[in-house]
Amino acid sequence: MSTIVLPPEWAPQCAVLLTWPHEQTDWADRLEEVDRTFLEIAIAVCKYQNLVINCQSFPRLEAIADALHENGVPPEKVALFCAPSNDTWSRDHGPITIYDNEEPVLLDFHFNAWGGKFDSEKDDQITATLYELGAFDGAALRHIPYILEGGSIETDGRGTLLTTSACLLTPTRNPDATKEKVEAVMAEHLGVKRTLWLDHGYLAGDDTDSHIDTLARFCDERTICYVQCLDTEDEHYAELSAMEKQLQSFVDADGAPYKLVPLPMASAAYDEDGQRLPATYANFLIINEAVLVPVYGVPEDQAALDAIQSCFPDRNIEAIDCRSLIEQHGSLHCVTMQLPEGVI
Length: 344
Prior knowledge:
Blueprint: E1 4-5, E2 13-19, H1 31-46, E3 50-54, H2 58-70, E4 78-81, H3 90-93, E5 96-100, E6 103-110, H4 113-116, H5 126-132, E7 140-147, E8 154-155, E9 160-164, H6 165-168, H7 179-190, E10 194-198, E11 216-220, E12 223-227, H8 237-249, E13 259-263, E14 285-287, E15 290-295, H9 301-311, E16 316-321, E17 336-340
């Protein structure tokens, strides 16, 4: 009988996956700006572990390699691959890794760009293509005929899943989705024993139907940090306050209330059309010995860094300017996917 475990993000990792923007993505008009952000992420990751980079353009792959070399990143820390892509959101088109009887297995769920909002045919094939190219040589690959994005789930590593009903019950992903059916899929493929459903919480400008990784995150088995809104005039106040109350009602697998750590709501940022962008500090990435935290050049940045440092006292905090990423409605966690130990 197999024993399936979905490891928490703080478990040991071998690498991080990035799908780099290119000229045929929505980043075309601001490639230079987003290149700097991706390069900053890549350099920070390589201080602690290896990196797998995918980009469909060979010339850009060469330029990426040159830029990393110029910034002192040893070439043996980075594996470069060329596979077609529609966009750059590795969290959602990348593999979700489980351990099945202690052996790493890559789960290749289907990806339909958050319910068919954008083109996704190439992105849906990236994990399989990279596997065929030898990017993941230490793990088996398992195709799952179900739509699921990595940004929509959080785990404590003990069988508890944290998610949002707004996302996982959206009929444009899996038309027959109910809480009972979703929980059955999570139990079968991810080894989930219990699911905590957040029925409130959203961010303006978010395309994902309230991915959990923009709102609330496990920091350890007993700690959840979350976005808090204290401004009664802010459009998020009612929903995020209701989310906070629901989080306060949750208990861990042992029946104890969670330690809840609020993160500030970042000052409102807008695109050139005046649309509010989803700036969130919850979209951090945990890696070996460090946490990469998105910042946006606003007054709340330092308070967010301090709060996250309090959640991870034994890890270095690396601030990454992600103002460019929110222009396409995502942030740091959204463009990365950690690969747990053994995948490579």
